[in-house]
Amino acid sequence: MNSEKLSNRLATVVKYIPKGFKIADIGSDHAYLPCHVVAQGLVPFAIAGEVVEGPFQSAKKQVALEGLTEKISVRMGSGLEVISPNEVDCITIAGMGGALIASILDEGKDKLGSVQRLILQPNLSAKSIRTWLIDHHWELVGEEILEEDDKIYEVLIAEKGDPLAPYSNETLESDLLFGPFLKKQKSETFTKKWLNEKKNWERILQQIETASNQGENNPKREELLNKIKMVEEVLN
């Protein structure tokens, strides 16, 4: 992968960046995504944020190599610390756990005033992000699921709006876990992901059933049974 040829995962994130928006890519690694969108003329300005020294230096090097230092600002800092209020229209965060992405948004929520779109790609626990979006009045407006290099990724797109719009009261728990849009689309990749998860939960359940301290495991057992039931209902 390089800034000319992004991975499918990052190319999917790029697909949802509105033309002309100023963006901040948090956890930018080599700054491939900002370099790509600026070089393609999709965005006029980008911030590449990194909290770790090595990736920060790699990002600076990549931006300089491509001659984009006037249009891409590489900054070192934790999460949304790297942006000022009203500086960008769109934030992308890719390649982290859902709980971490939610905590980055939470800690930096005072920076979200001018932000019109969030494009978030969790490696796991997308539910944490969906829950955060509801709690902070962001509307989930789209989702995509894809497989690359034997890993399955979800991409969530949110804008300010009615946080409950895509959800149903009757199936909220299920919608938060599976994604209201992904559930309806029920793609092959979606089915594969949740069959794998179900298999994993059944294996853990079997271990609990044979454990000697079953009483202590009752809440975990109930949680797993509930999740397995939800997968069966969604896939049927």
What does this structure look like?
By secondary structure, this protein is of the alpha/beta class. The chain has two domains: 8-167, Vaccinia Virus protein VP39 (Rossmann fold); 189-235. It is 44% helix and 20% strand. It is built from nine helices and seven strands. It has helices at residues 8-15, 32-39, 53-65, 98-107, 126-135, 172-178, 180-185, 188-210, 218-235; strands at 23-26, 46-50, 72-76, 90-96, 117-122, 138-148, 151-160. A seven-stranded mixed β-sheet has the order 3-2-1-4-5-7-6, sandwiched between helices. A hairpin with a 2-residue loop joins strand 6 (138-148) and strand 7 (151-160). The radius of gyration is 19 Å and the shape is elongated. The model has no long low-confidence stretch (mean pLDDT 95).
Topology of this structure?
Blueprint: H1 8-15, E1 23-26, H2 32-39, E2 46-50, H3 53-65, E3 72-76, E4 90-96, H4 98-107, E5 117-122, H5 126-135, E6 138-148, E7 151-160, H6 172-178, H7 180-185, H8 188-210, H9 218-235
Parallel strand pairs: 1-2, 1-4, 2-3, 4-5
Antiparallel strand pairs: 5-7, 6-7
Helix pairs in contact: 4-5, 8-9
Keywords: Plasmid
Protein name: tRNA (Adenine(22)-N(1))-methyltransferase TrmK
Organism: Robertmurraya mangrovi
